[in-house]
Amino acid sequence: MKNLVISVPRLEIHRPPISTAIVCNVIKQAGQDVQALDLNINFLRWLGKHSEYYNFDQIWDGERAITDSERELCIKFISQYKDKIDLYNVIWISVFGGSCHLFTELLCDFIRTHLKNKTIILGGQGVVTYHVGKYAENFGDIMKRKGLCDIYISGEGEETVVKVLNEDLNQPGVNNPKPLQLNELDNLPFPDYGYYNLDDYDYLTPNEKEVFIVGSRGCVRHCTYCDVARHWPKFRFRSGNNIASEMINHYEKHGVERFYFTDSLINGSIKAFHDMCTQLAKYRNDYKVDFRWGGQFIFRPKRQLPQGHYDMVAEAGGDTFYVGVETGSDKVRWEMDKKFTNDDTEWQLEEFSRNKLHCFFLMLVGYITETKQDQQDTLDMFPRWKKYVADGTIRGIDFGVSLKFMAHTPLERMIDSSGVYFLDAGDIYNGETTSNKDTNLWQCTTNPDLDVYERLRRRVEVQKEAIKHNWPVWRGPTRLKAVKLLAMKYRDYLADLQPEPKLYVEESTGYNWFK
Amino acid sequence: MTQLHLEAHADFCNKWPTLMITHNGKIIHNDTLEDKIILDYTLQDRQSWEQSDMLRDCDVANANEIRNNLLVGMKGKRFGANNVWDTVMDGGKMVEDLEIHLDKVTLDDVDILDLLLDDNYYVEFTEGMQDYHKTNFKGNGELAFNGYYQMNYQIPLYESLTNQKWKKPLETDRGYFSNDTQVFHYDDEMQEIREIEEILKEIDEKFSDIRSKTRNT
Q1: Fold of A2-165
Q2: Mind listing the pLDDT tens digit for each residue in A195-237?
Q3: Do A481 and B192 touch (CB under 8 A)?
Q4: pTM of the predicted model, to two decimals?
Q5: What is the distance between the terminal CA atoms of chain A, rounded to a whole angstrom?
Q6: Is the ipTM of this complex over 0.85?
Q7: Contact partners, residue B176, CB within 8 Å, separation at least 6
Q8: Cβ contact (<8 Å) for B196 and A460?
Q9: How far, in Å, CA of A143 to CA of A125, rounded?
Q10: N- or C-end of chain A: fewer Cβ atoms within 10 A?
Q11: How far apart are the CA of B180 and the nearest CA of chain A, in angstroms?
Q12: Looking at the domain assignment, is residue B24 inside a domain?
């Protein structure tokens, strides 16, 4: 069988996709022909400008419907690959998330319409995406029902792909959303980036090739708003030596010196993280390689870390880390199950500063239990830590939009106990208006002061305070555009509840009044 | 008030050099530097932005009035006056030279050596130097001629240093997820904030009763 593994928009453009690089290697090791096709990066190159590529974000993110001309543009782009796709029997499409749904649908529809005898297999987290409270069908089910795919794979693909190649379809995770989680990650094949032209990518620093690394799956934390545990119920991690070996392999094969970890937390296992740093530091010194790497990271209580921990991270090439600080309130952060305090953060900022490491703060304004004092604690964070902005330790802060209830999260399970209710303002999903509740528009009886209005007000207030202290706000205008859309939805919702003025006829005068 | 911390070391030639530091034109240090030195000074800064009602970027006409200036320099090196050279050559090779090397300079714990070096090193003409000697050049932290490095800052300090060290000219056609030139440019954000605040104001004015009802039911 000849296999073609396709990545579709919207993915990140700064590194080659890892999921398809893994699947390609798995198929190759199973003894079959395989090639990769990255339609995401090709779409960027075909459109020519970043701005044109990013214009599609609103569509991929379901913020508005695709227009006819945009749909035609996508199909025109896809149709260029008709002959290439026709060379293969089995078409594997990686559906990274909800932002890949529409393009996947267009691509599958094109293949079904124009090409014969193709087996279409969908995989990736995006195939099992649901909406809160709507669990009858996921994206994979919908695509199967529409006849747009033959098989979908949920969960980790390394073992399941082999079973599908052997036509052993009666498996957990094949055409069902209940995969088995892999326990032993060290035995899995490395992603093979040889299937891509690594010069095609829009690297963060020009001419510095960068690839993704998976060090672990799942998370040691169970933050209440996060749905990672749904995809990976257990935290599984590779040994530090295994991860370092892969990085060295990519350097020796492709000259790659920059790495970004896809892990929920790069330092979920302190031991594995420490072992990896030790080996990388030695290789860096022995071979004078300028490894630099980063990823999502958790600040830990000081007592959990060995002395000199961050010196070792710096020696190993650790560079930039994305930390879910979420709030300036210890109370709220604790209720989120984050398990670290502002004092822990400050100690870590000082260590980062001393070792010239960098971090981004990821924030979440308007948590379900947030009070006015908690909001004040968040506002106080900006003057308190602006020194670390000035010295370059804090490189960015992303405020997101606001707390949204996601399916299969601890927070979702707290809906009843917290008295959460959703304001029925409708939602736009892949261009089709549905009757789903908008899970952004929630309020709760246990914290009635924090209604939608107050959350919007606090969200704006926090960003203004960050600007006042000259913090490096990332994606500021784009995030605020989404906040504005939320505000407009909320306003329209309230307007719809406004009683319609009725016509009254005043008997004494005969005049008509609207009242 | 701002804390200046400076670490430097010197090279001997006939004598030790003199390190001079001025702040807003006033000499705060003027002494011989023997081998190594660690200095800490509390600087009395000029008025803050808030006090003077200035805009963040200080792009207004009287910005100079609130600018603070720090100057770190060397003096006393001789270039042949009275037949004395504080440089010793042997066969075309320099074997001794009177110099100061800046190792670390911080304001309130934030490194400013990069900002001092961003600007040129300004050479003060000294008797014995050639007339055509360059009067300024890009330095790397050493003070090998009589002269100085300097930098300006404003209060609030951290905001000012942040802009000087990290703010870049805005580039528009770059990846949205990774456009690091967008940070510290707040115009678009402020526009969005104004629009959101307008919507909130409208909700306040028109729908506050209904808002209360949705909250209380």
Answers
A1: Rossmann fold (3.40.50)
A2: 999 999 999 888 899 999 999 988 988 899 998 888 788 899 9
A3: yes
A4: 0.86
A5: 73
A6: yes
A7: A50, A54, A57, A475, A478
A8: yes
A9: 14
A10: C
A11: 8
A12: yes
